[in-house]
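This part of the workshop introduces the protein records we will be handling. As an example, a complete record with its sequence and its C-alpha cells follows.
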Amino acid sequence: MRVLMLGWEFPPFITGGLGTACAGLTRALAKGGTDLTFVLPGPADPNAVEHMQLIAPGQVSTGSSQAGVRDHSQAEPSPASFSTTPPSGATVPPSSAPSPLPEQTSPQDIDPIATMGSYASAYAGATPSTAAQAVQWAAESDAQPSAGPDDLPSPRRNAAEPEHGMNEQPACEPLGDDSAEHSVVNDDSGGEGGGIIDAVRRYARFVETAVADLNFDVIHAHDWLTWPAALRVARRTGRPLIVHVHSTEFDRSGESVHPVIHDIERRGMLGAMRVITVSQLTRNIVVERYGVDPAKVTVVYNGIEMDPIDSGLSPIGRREKIVLYFGRITRQKGPEFFIRAAARVLELRQDVRFVVAGSGDLYQRCVELAAELGIGQHFLFTGFLRGEDIQKVFSMADLFVMPSVSEPFGIAPLEAMSHDVPVLISKSSGVSEVLTHALKVDFWDTEAMADKILAVLRYPPLGRTLRRAGPLDLRRLTWDDAARKCRQAYTEVVAAMGGVGV
C-alpha cells in the first residue's frame, strides 16, 4: 500500500504531541510494509528519516522507494505541474473524475480554503457501500459557492471569552519566523502574510505541486492545518482521503471557536471517506459538533515506543519531592488549575518543588499567578525542552500531572509512565479511557487534585504500585497496533473506491 501522508510537524522540529505521534505511527506503518511519503511545510531533517520519503520545501529525503521525485526548491507551484487526471492505475468511477481548471486560471490564483466546499464534496457522505455513488456529487457541487462563516452552526459563546477565542497558536507555523508572533487569521487586504491561515494556504499549494509525479493509493492527513491540501489532492486524483483528528477547535478554544478554523475542520471531516480520532472522547465531539456520520469514524489510540522498563537515566538525588507539569502552557492544558492545586499542597507540605516544563501563550500569566499566590519560590518554569532535557526532567519527577481542560488523547502521560513516573491525569482526556493504573481527577477540582498529589508524596507504596502496574497499560498501547488499524482503514477506503488494497 502506497500512502501519501500530510503533516504539520515531525521530529526533531516539534511543538507538541502531534509530531511525536506522526513519528511513532509512520515508523510502525513502515515496519509493516507500508510505502510512505510524508509532506511537511518545513523545516525538516531528511537525513534523520530512513523509513519513508520526507518532502519539504527545498528538501527531499532518500528514505522512500518512490522513484522520480523532483527537488522542490520552491514553495509555490507552477501552473504546468498540476495534473487534472488520476495517476496511472487509478480505478475511479467516471463520474468522480476531477474537473479541469478553468482555462486561463493559474492554480496559484485559486484559494485552497475558499474552494474547500467543492473539493470536499468528492467523498462527502461516502461509506464502503456508497462511495462509488457518492462521488457523483462532486461535479454537481463544483458550481456551488463555498459556504462562509454565516453557514456554520452558531456555537454558544462564553461572554467572558474574546470574540475569536484563540488563546494559543495551533501547532507550529514553520513557514514563518519561529520567534515572531503570528496572527491567527489574515487581515482583510486579501494578501498573504505571516498568519497561520496563510501558512495553510501556502502549504496546500506546495503539496499539490510536490506530489504531482507521485503514485499513491490513499491520502492520510493529520489535523486541520493539512486538510485544505489533502482535499485538493483528493479531488484532483480521485484517491480516497482519510483525515486524522488529533485535536479540534472545541478542544483548543472551548465554545469560542474561530469560525474559519471550525469551517476548515468541518469541511475536512465531511469531505473525507474515513475519519480517525485519537479517542472516544474526540469521536463524540466529531459526531456531535461537526455532524459527521458515526459509521465513518474510527478510534485509533496513540501509542508509545519508549522502553517502559528502562528509561536509561537514574533519578537525581535531592531532598525535595518533584511534581511535574509537561506540555504547552495554554488554556486547553489547564496549567492554572495545576498551580492552584499546588498552593493547596504547599499549605500542608513545604518540601515540594513544582516544575512547569513547556511554553505557550499563558506562560507569563502562570508565572504571575504563582507569585500572586505566594508560592513562586516553589516553582521552576523551564520553558520549552528538547532532546535529553526531556528525559532528565522525567527522571527527576516523583509524580506527573496532566490537568487538561480538554485533551483529545495525551501522549505525555505515556512518556511519564515509560520513565517509571506515576501519573495523575484529567478525566477530560482521551488517554483516561485506556489507562487503568493512573490516578484521575476532574480538572476543575483543585482540592481533589491536591489530595491525590499529597497521597503519592506521603505514601510511597502507592507510588510503587502505580510504577509497577504502569507497564501493563503501556504494553496495550503500541504504535504497531495503531498502524494495524490504519492499514485496515486504508484497505477499506481503497476497496470502496474500486481499487485493491495491498
Q: What stands out?
A: The domain at 321-477 is CATH 3.40.50.2000 (Rossmann fold). The first strand starts at residue 2 and ends at 6. The chain has two domains: 2-162+170-186+199-300, 321-477. The chain has 16 helices and 14 strands.
